[in-house]
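Quick one: structure for this chain?
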Amino acid sequence: MRINRDTDYAIRCVLYMSGAPEKTYVISEIAKEKAIPESFLAKILQKLTKTGFLKSIRGTKGGFVLLKHPKDITLLDVVEAINGKILVNKCTTAEDRCMLIDNCPTFDIWFDIKKMIEDRLRGYEFSTLAARYADGVTSKTPSGV
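Got it. Here's what it folds into:
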């Protein structure tokens, strides 16, 4: 699995907005604060709006607002909203099960790794990440790891 630039930018955006979830944010503010090109950010915000994380508000006081509270948004949610389902090997998806699955020595390994990644990403709520960010915690390793 690889976190692409779109996903990284979406995570930065949701993290920034999680600091004041009731606020309406404009593209230029987020772009400046999170070092994301505005045109690129606009596409990411559209995707986050279509997937139900943000609401787009039109007009002079318009912008984007979080639809869910940061405690109800996980890293897994944002990764999957931008990248799609976690995929370690295509055989781990229901649509791409191969004919050798019942006699495959590696299927269980790929499936376990996929589940481990999903579980780990699901364990990080944006409310917690935003609090760590606000407190200036810059540890590269999550606590307890």
